[in-house]
Design goal:
single chain, about 190 residues, alpha+beta, Hypothetical Protein Pfu-838710-001, about 30% helix, globular
Length: about 190
Amino acid sequence: MKQEIEIELKNLVTEEEFNALISAFSISDDSFIEQTNHYFDTEDFSLKDKGCALRIRYKKNTYTFTLKRPHDDGLLESHEVLSEANALDLINGHRVASSEMLDLLEETFGIESNKLKCLGSLVTSRVERTYKSGLLVFDHSTYLGTEDFELEYEVADRKTGEQEFHNLLETYNIPQRNTLNKIERFFNRKRG
């Protein structure tokens, strides 16, 4: 299982701001790649209560099982690539023979695989571009009858990244907005 620290800055933008950025960065419509996040938790939101997020992402014909959990300077991400059969079994609420991620969840949090359920899906059209010291991500997401537009900036150094991201937003007259991550926005919408 692969692990990495993720430092990600994010800002929701309006559709007009998003389109202006797409134009400014010369991004064509056919540059966007679609990915689908299938979100998981227990009935009583055991993972959410611990500040964690669990998903299976389908992107470019690959299913990746990812756990994000709090870390001193961002999030610790654990990833496991799944076969299509195992991914679809999990999404549809069936057991799988083995999974490093399910073992990790049981060992770390005491969560048994049969307690997990897929709570729904979020589809994102995404473009990634290298920018300054990081990776700038343009996301248009649809989920539970709504859509939003988001700018993310993935960096190795938080202080440098925050300054670069702030300057970018300022350059395009975009206000900084307190932005929840996708799974939190998904859960808030699901709860109504």
